[in-house]
Design a protein that fits this description.
395 residues, alpha+beta, three-stranded mixed β-sheet
């Protein structure tokens, strides 16, 4: 056999070996991933909210070409089983015990069935809307207010079992929130996922913190925020303070930008930290999930995991609904965010492609933004500005 022939044969063998190694590595990683996903699913608390949603009047059509997942960040002072958090945990969270429940983060993740790019639509927590079974109020109060009213009614009706009252009142609160989101956006909520304060705290500890960047030093005694300017890694109580700080430019809109940037960076860190293959980190993740995450019974965690990868890579279009004012007051003197509800529905329809979508302006409130390593957006006051760097600097 000639030298050239032997070299060609060797190259083919090496090529096969490389392909085999890649295939084996992929299978091993996939095995780790799917095993981890199965463990996470076993440790995740579920809610029967989908059965309740069938009773919501005037809901949008079930089949609209996409899967819409309502992602909720709750400030509940209980764990996912409804047990009050102990005093030492509340101190770590830099908060105090309270019976009220507010949903500080409200995002609708839209995943097109045709494989198109996903969208994440944020709703400011102080958006003033009608709440079924209650009154017109901030959308973040829908869950807590209706939960409380329902619990009181159940007790008056003689339902003595506290666990049953907790479960039924939680479902009523979630239903009220979902209905408020559907009525505001015109989107049909197909799935529901909720994480509480404690889970947020535990998750950032598991992944070793999240990289963020601030344009200037900032502090807020109410949330415990005290950060220097520039890039930094935060976790635990600091991470909670970062996304909950109130006294910042743009109010609710500025805080939403922080949440969007933080979420993108957190998913990137989660998927790059070897969490699924590190036994210690995996144990911490399962602990966080069991104590803090609630999803509907039919939510496919693989779909959620795929969107987490999209968040990490920047392949998700973030947007915030358009508002008419961020510093209005209701008749009780509370600071609220006002919206034109019909304009919001029209804007959402454009964003998700139900009507022709004009080219968005970077200075239009509610314009889509994309967070990724190539081009990251942050807010300067109430306007979006491009930042060419790995970690976006925000106010």
């Amino acid at each position: 056999m000639s030298t050239a022939a032997r070299a060609k044969k060797t190259a083919r063998v090496v090529g096969r070996v490389v392909v085999a190694l890649v295939a084996v590595t992929t299978l091993v990683f996939s095995g780790y991933f799917w095993t981890a996903l199965r463990l996470v699913k076993q440790n995740t608390n579920t809610t029967q909210i989908l059965q309740v949603l069938e009773d919501i009047p005037n809901s949008p059509p079930v089949e609209d070409g996409a899967i819409d997942i309502l992602l909720v960040g709750s400030d509940s002072r209980t764990d996912a089983q409804g047990r009050p958090l102990p005093a030492d945990v509340l101190r770590k969270l830099r908060t105090e015990g309270t019976d009220t429940v507010n949903t500080d983060t409200i995002i609708v993740m839209r995943v097109p069935r045709n494989g198109g790019k996903a969208s994440a639509i944020s709703i400011p927590r102080d958006t003033y809307v009608p709440i079924a079974g209650y009154r017109e109020d901030k959308i973040n109060s829908a869950y807590g207010a209706v939960k409380y009213i329902t619990a009181e009614r159940l007790q008056a009706e003689g339902v003595s079992d506290q666990a049953e009252r907790e479960r039924k009142s939680d479902e009523a609160g979630r239903k009220a929130l979902v209905q408020a989101v559907q009525d505001l956006t015109g989107m049909r909520v197909d799935h529901y996922a909720e994480i509480n304060l404690y889970g947020f705290y535990l998750l950032t500890e598991v992944i070793g913190g999240v990289q963020v960047c601030l344009k200037a030093g900032t502090s807020d005694p109410n949330s415990g925020a005290n950060f220097r300017a520039g890039p930094q890694t935060i976790s635990g109580g600091d991470a909670l303070s970062f996304v909950r700080q109130r006294n910042m430019p743009g109010g609710d809109l500025g805080r939403i930008t922080r949440q969007q940037v933080f979420m993108s960076q957190a998913m990137k860190q989660l998927l790059s930290a070897g969490t699924f293959t590190d036994p210690g980190k995996m144990s911490g993740l399962l602990d966080a999930v069991s104590k803090s995450v609630v999803v509907d019974q039919k939510l496919d965690l693989a779909t959620l995991a795929a969107q987490a990868q999209g968040l990490a890579s920047g392949n998700v279009e973030f947007a915030t609904i358009p508002v008419t004012s961020i510093d209005a007051r209701n008749d009780r003197g509370q600071s609220i965010v006002t919206v034109d509800r019909e304009a919001v529905k029209a804007w959402v329809a454009q964003l998700i492609g139900e009507t022709p979508k004009p080219e968005p302006s970077s200075t239009t409130p509610g314009a889509p933004s994309r967070f990724g390593p190539e081009k990251l957006l942050s807010l300067d006051g109430a306007h979006a500005v491009a930042a060419q760097q790995d970690v976006p600097c925000v106010d």
